Amino acid sequence: MRLPAAVRESVVEQNAVVLHIAVHVQPGAKVARVGGSSDGVLQVAVRARAIEGAATEEVERVVADAFGVRPRAVTCVRGQRARHKVLAIDGDPVLLAAIHADLLAQER
């Protein structure tokens, strides 16, 4: 499957059951939200502070909700202690890529 250019930049890897995406996290936000793009990377704002992995755990939860998958279907595979992370999302990669494209297109 050929992904749109805006999505290709932030999709790190795609295989039959997992989609890997790059995200930029804003910890300590007033409202948790997923959507928008900065340099082709999906923006994720979470209320939790970046203390002892709390922000990463909330990122996994809010991204799972935005993609309509179970919370345990999203795992951080790179950048556990950084604002730039790579997340693995289990599920149908074609459907997930379409949702990802919609989220990237949203205004911040």
Secondary structure: elements and pairs:
Layout: H1 5-8, E1 11-14, E2 18-26, E3 33-38, E4 41-45, H2 54-67, E5 74-78, E6 84-90, H3 93-105
Question: How would you describe this structure to a colleague?
Answer:
This protein is of the alpha+beta class and 108 residues long. The protein is 29% helix and 33% strand. Strand 1 and strand 2 (18-26) form a beta hairpin. The radius of gyration is 12 Å and the shape is globular.
Please name the defining characteristics of this protein:
single chain; 108 residues; alpha+beta; Conserved Hypothetical Protein Mth637, Chain: A; 6-stranded mixed sheet; 3 helices; 6 strands; 29% helix
The CATH topology name reads: Conserved Hypothetical Protein Mth637, Chain: A
CATH level 1 class label: Alpha Beta
Structural class: alpha+beta
Total number of distinct structural domains? 1
| Helix content, binned percent | 25-40%
Radius of gyration from the CA trace?
A: 12 Å
Global morphology: globular
Query: In angstroms, what separates the terminal alpha carbons?
Result: 28 Å
Summarize the structure.
By secondary structure, the protein is of the alpha+beta class. It is built from three helices and six strands, in the order αββββαββα. Strands 1, 2, 3, 4, 5 and 6 form a six-stranded mixed β-sheet that branches.
